[in-house]
C-alpha cells in the first residue's frame, strides 16, 4: 500500500478567538485527483497554506510526500507545484520571462538553459498560452494570468500539484481545458492533484475523491462515486402506467412513489434497477426510460452542512 501524499491529523488553526480550521483529518493518496470543497470562508485556503508551510498550524500534524511540514519544507516543496489564490508576476515582463525567473529561483536542474526553454515551452503549451508567451503579462486577461500561474506550477513536473481555485477568471471553454489537463496528469500516474474549490460542479466532474469542509470542520471525505451513490428512487417513463405500477409492486421491497402523466416513481429497498426493468419488460410494459436517481454534489453538500458538521466518513 502506497504512503499517503498528504496526511493531516487534528489540524487546527486559530486566529485569536476565531477557529479557521478545526481538527481536520485529511488523507490524499498517490494518484488521487482530490477535491477539497467548501464555500468561501470555510477554511480551504488556510488549510492549503498550512500544507505548503506558508501558515503555521496552531496544533495538529501535517505530512506532505511522507515528510513533516513545515519542518521538511526545503526537501518537499521542490517536488510540489502550487497555485494559491491569485498568481503574482512581473507585469512588464512576458509570460515566458516570468516563468524563466520562477524556474531560475528554484533548485538547479541538469540541462541548463536549453532544458529550461524546453520545459517553459511545454508548460505554456499545456495551458494554452504557447501563442502569447512573449506578450507582457500586463496585457493578459485575468483568465490568461490564471493559466500562467498554472504553467508555473507545472514547470518542474511536480509529484504533487496543490491548486486553490485554479479556474478563477476562466470562461467555460477554459475551465473544461483545465479539467481535462488535470485529469490527464493523474492518468499519467506521476502526479497527484489536490484541488481546492467552491465550485461543486467542477469537483463533481473531474475529481475521484473529495472532502467537504464547513465552518472549518471536515464533514465528509470519500470517493466521489460513493458520495453520489444512488438514492434507491427510480423513475419509469411508460405509456402503460397502471400495468407498470402493478408489476413493480409485485417485487419484494418495491414501494410506489408518485405518478405524473406517463411517469411512475418507485422506491427500491434492496431490489436492483435492472431487476425492475426485467420485470416490466417481461410483463409487456413499454419502458421508454428508466432513470436511477442520484444526488448531485450540491445535494450532498447541502444535506451535510444544513445542520452543522457531523463526523466525517471514510
What this model shows, in words?
There is one protein chain. By secondary structure, the protein is α/β, with parallel strands linked by helices. The chain has 2 domains: 222 residues, Rossmann fold (3-Layer(aba) Sandwich); 60 residues, Alpha-Beta Plaits, CATH 3.30.70. It is built from 11 helices and 15 strands. The strands form 3 sheets. Strands 7-8-9-4-10-11 form a 6-stranded mixed beta sheet, sandwiched between helices. Strands 1, 2, 3, 5 and 6 form a 5-stranded antiparallel beta sheet that branches. Strand 5 and strand 6 form a beta hairpin. Helix 3 crosses helix 4 and helix 4 packs across helix 5. It is elongated and about 75 Å long. The C terminus is likely disordered.
CATH superfamily of the largest domain: P-loop containing nucleotide triphosphate hydrolases
The total count of helices amounts to: 11
Helicity range: 25-40%
Strand order, sheet with most strands: 7-8-9-4-10-11
Question: Into how many domains do the coordinates divide?
Answer: 2
Largest sheet: 6 strands, mixed
- In the CATH hierarchy, the third-tier topology of the largest domain is known as Rossmann fold
Text of the CATH class of the largest domain? Alpha Beta
Number of strands: 15
- The secondary structure category is alpha/beta
Strand content: 25-35%
Amino acid at each position: 500500500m502506497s504512503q499517503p501524499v498528504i496526511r493531516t491529523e487534528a489540524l487546527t488553526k486559530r486566529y485569536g478567538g476565531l477557529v479557521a480550521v478545526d481538527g481536520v483529518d485529511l488523507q490524499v493518496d498517490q494518484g488521487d485527483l482530490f477535491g477539497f470543497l467548501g464555500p468561501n470562508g470555510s477554511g480551504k485556503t488556510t488549510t492549503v497554506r498550512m500544507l505548503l508551510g506558508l501558515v503555521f498550524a496552531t496544533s495538529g500534524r501535517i505530512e506532505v510526500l511522507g515528510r513533516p511540514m513545515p519542518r521538511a519544507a526545503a526537501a518537499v516543496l521542490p517536488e510540489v507545484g502550487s497555485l494559491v489564490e491569485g498568481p503574482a508576476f512581473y507585469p512588464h515582463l512576458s509570460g515566458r520571462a516570468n516563468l524563466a525567473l520562477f524556474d531560475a529561483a528554484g533548485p538547479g536542474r541538469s540541462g541548463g538553459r536549453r532544458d529550461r526553454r524546453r520545459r517553459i515551452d511545454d508548460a505554456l503549451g499545456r495551458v494554452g498560452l504557447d501563442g502569447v508567451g512573449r506578450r507582457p503579462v500586463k496585457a493578459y486577461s485575468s483568465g490568461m494570468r490564471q493559466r500562467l500561474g498554472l504553467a508555473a506550477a507545472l514547470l518542474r513536473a511536480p509529484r504533487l500539484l496543490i491548486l486553490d481555485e485554479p479556474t478563477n477568471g476562466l470562461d467555460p471553454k477554459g475551465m473544461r481545458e483545465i479539467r481535462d489537463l488535470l485529469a490527464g496528469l493523474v492518468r499519467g500516474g506521476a502526479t497527484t492533484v489536490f484541488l481546492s474549490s467552491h465550485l461543486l460542479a467542477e469537483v463533481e466532474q473531474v475529481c475521484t475523491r473529495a472532502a467537504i469542509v464547513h465552518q472549518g470542520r471536515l464533514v465528509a471525505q470519500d470517493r466521489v462515486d460513493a458520495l453520489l451513490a444512488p438514492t434507491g428512487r427510480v423513475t419509469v417513463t411508460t405509456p402503460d402506467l397502471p400495468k407498470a405500477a402493478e408489476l413493480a409492486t409485485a417485487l419484494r421491497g418495491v414501494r410506489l412513489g408518485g405518478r405524473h402523466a406517463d411517469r411512475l416513481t418507485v422506491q427500491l429497498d434492496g431490489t436492483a434497477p435492472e431487476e425492475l426493468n426485467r420485470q416490466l419488460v417481461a410483463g409487456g410494459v413499454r419502458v421508454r426510460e428508466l432513470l436511477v436517481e442520484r444526488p448531485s454534489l450540491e445535494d450532498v453538500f447541502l444535506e451535510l452542512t444544513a445542520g452543522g458538521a457531523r463526523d466525517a466518513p471514510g
